[in-house]
Specification:
Blueprint (H helix, E strand, L loop, with lengths): L1 E4 L27 E4 L11 H11 L4 E4 L7 H5 L4 E3 L2 E7 L2 E4 L3 E5 L2 E6 L24 H16 L6 E4 L7 H5 L7 H13 L5 E4 L6 E3 L2 E3 L4 E3 L2
Helix pairs in contact: 3-5
């Protein structure tokens, strides 16, 4: 089983994964996944709160997969050792807590998932760089190129992308989906290029960031909803 949910902002919104609200976990094992679509919030500061929620998540019967959003400690993430898992590079936080890295493709339960975390914080002027905001929240040109190259390599080997998982969304769908205008986030421009590569073949694109639950065709924004993918 694979479930998806939006930003958990540990400790603010992580409670949706408790047994009372997410009772389906009673039938899950470590071979089943809950994927958090960015702003996970576990890796923020090395303090007692981090240790509490780390232990809480380690006691879950399922495996937590997460991609980074904008509100993460990106310096901490980037200094973690890299390992290979299900076809892509990852960071292991614990045996059942795994960070899915930018521009990677994973084969999970017979489906392929392209992942690109990151986004621009519109509130960065109210945050302190290196303490509550990190410049590397936005994917670099190198990370973007690696992601596009990975998709092209996948295509060259006769494979296709089934699902795309990101924190924010392509800039071209912001207005039709949310009736808003892009705030000039380079991440959304990169995701427009990804969209050109995979839109026709993909089954669905899932993202968080916008703090709402909304669907538009193949595009699905999740916040406090927990959606079973299959």
């Amino acid at each position: 089983m694979i479930y998806l949910t939006g930003d958990t902002h540990i400790p603010i919104d992580i409670h949706r994964l408790n047994v009372k609200q997410f009772w389906e976990q009673r039938d899950m094992t470590r071979d089943d996944y809950v994927i958090v679509l960015g702003d996970f919030g576990l890796l923020w500061h090395r303090n007692r709160e981090y240790l509490y929620w780390l232990t809480w998540l380690q006691q879950k019967p399922f495996t937590v997969l997460w991609l980074d959003g904008n509100h993460e400690n990106h310096d901490w993430i980037q200094n973690l050792p890299v390992q290979t898992w299900h076809g892509g590079n990852v960071h292991f936080i614990a045996d059942n807590i795994i960070h899915l890295m930018r521009g990677q493709i994973y084969d999970l339960q017979g489906k392929s998932f392209f992942v690109m975390g990151g986004a621009m914080s519109i509130d960065r002027e109210f945050r302190a760089e290196g303490e509550s905001w990190w410049e590397s929240e936005v994917p670099s040109q190198k990370e973007g190129r690696q992601g596009l190259d990975a998709i092209q390599h996948y295509h060259n080997n006769g494979k296709h992308i089934d699902y795309v998982l990101t924190h924010t969304c392509p800039g071209s769908i912001i207005h039709p989906m949310f009736q808003m205008h892009s705030a000039g986030d380079p991440t959304t421009d990169l995701l427009d290029t990804v969209r050109e590569y995979v839109e026709d073949e993909m089954e669905g694109w899932y993202f968080g960031h916008w703090h709402m639950n909304k669907d538009m065709g193949k595009y699905h924004c999740l916040y406090n909803k927990i959606k079973k993918l299959f």
